[in-house]
């Protein structure tokens, strides 16, 4: 007899099959002569209903079987007379693998708040909500790889320890060893973005992407910021800003299609409990072109909105979350791409436009979330790039390796970064980014 996952049992077996399964007890219903265990192994939202009666070997263990225990069962799959499931397992054998004291088990059947469950990061995955979110996180990651693989992009790995600040915002965590502040011979940091390294690889492999953890030492305690988050960063030679926006739009839509196809069950669960109208919203986005606005047009719209924003709007100001949400949620009611931002609010590597004032930047904004993707066409001209680096007071020597790519065989190229957790926030309907990463790191918090 083969051990199968609950998902496999429910989808591929038929009544009469002899089955072995194992997992955790979600609940037990006892009646005098028979007990029903709702067994989950995390493989699917639906659990396996296991029927235990006095003929079951191990029947006497029942008084030790509570929510949270791990058990193994074997028996025959039979048509279920009850509502809610097609099959149930009529157990011939029950074994208790790991007990869980019902008095002290932290996750009770009653509904806990998400805030409380965050303090139980080691056990919250046993709940339907977090199991769904973390299954979605896995599917989304697979969907990202599948999109780029199908397009012929190469998956590369940027270093986590770096000596260059990509975004130039001074938001880097320093890395040192005990008693040796300069273990690497110079100050080293946790990367804020794999972009600079991705550019190098793209200027040799043409189309690449990185996908890994990135770190920001910004003191932002918001529902949308993490100190450690995952970012996917494609980088493409011979793409200009238009091509870059086209790819970002195609990518995001492809991910929604992928999720609807591969993880509908969890999306439906999240729609039911967390985000009414979720599936219709995703389907609506897939079917329509994204609105595209220049920064100048966006500022015009914000000024004409008659809204009093916390951060006042003027040409040259940064677009804040409240502005992003006004544009994508209220004004457009759909994803929107803002492009060609003032050079003064963007990093050194973005390509300077002919007006000398703006750069070929683009951000994709989503309703409910705000910015989900940030990207740009890169400055491929050595002289312009060198001037920008000097102007911003950055060290030319530090970036000499980066400048070399413009010195030898430069080519126009573009890329963007999409935050995995922000995407998952949008897809799951969760409101706080701490609920879509298994072990959140935020200012003042690095538990587990
Ligand atoms: O706009 P950002 O800072 O862009 C870059 O880092 C570029 N180097 C990317 C590139 O062109 N290759 O970050 C990109 C995305 C944001 O749109 C957002 O989704 C996410 O990364 N992000 C964060 N997610 C969670 N917590 C934070 N503190 C984040 N900062 C950025
Ligand atoms: Mg950004």
CATH class of the largest domain: Alpha Beta
| Radius of gyration using CA atoms only | 26 Å
Run of helices and strands: HEEEEEHHEEEEHEEHHHEHHEEEHHEH
Low-confidence blocks of residues: none
CATH superfamily of the largest domain: Bira Bifunctional Protein, Domain 2
Q: Quick one: overall form?
A: elongated
Sheet of most strands: 8 strands, mixed
Spatial strand order of the main sheet: 6-10-11-16-15-14-13-12
Strand percentage: 15-25%
Report mean pLDDT, rounded to a whole number.
95
User: Helical region count?
Assistant: 12
Name given to the CATH architecture of the largest domain:
2-Layer Sandwich
What is the first-to-last residue Cα distance? Answer: 38 Å
Q: What compounds are bound to the protein? A: 4-amino-1,4-dioxobutan-2-aminium adenosine-5'-monophosphate, magnesium ion
Oligomer: single chain
Number of domains: 2
Q: Give the helix proportion (percent range).
A: 25-40%
> Structural class of the helix and strand makeup?
alpha+beta
Query: What's the total count of β strands?
Result: 16
Task: Outline the structure in words.
By secondary structure, this protein is α+β, with helices and mostly antiparallel strands. The chain has 2 domains: about 5-110, OB fold (Dihydrolipoamide Acetyltransferase, E2P), CATH 2.40.50.140; about 125-435, BirA Bifunctional Protein, domain 2, CATH 3.30.930.10. About 30% of the residues lie in helices and about 25% in strands. It has helices spanning about 5-10, 115-120, 130-150, 195-205, 240-260, 265-275, 280-285, 295-305, 320-330, 380-390, 400-405, 420-430; strands spanning about 20-30, 35-40, 50, 70-80, 85-100, 155, 160, 175, 190, 205-215, 230-235, 290-295, 335-340, 360-365, 370-375, 415-420. Strands 6-10-11-16-15-14-13-12 form an 8-stranded mixed beta sheet. Strand 2 and strand 3 (about 50) form a beta hairpin. It is elongated and about 85 Å long. The model has no long low-confidence stretch (mean pLDDT about 95). The protein binds 4-amino-1,4-dioxobutan-2-aminium adenosine-5'-monophosphate and magnesium ion. Magnesium ion binds near residues 363, 371 and 374.
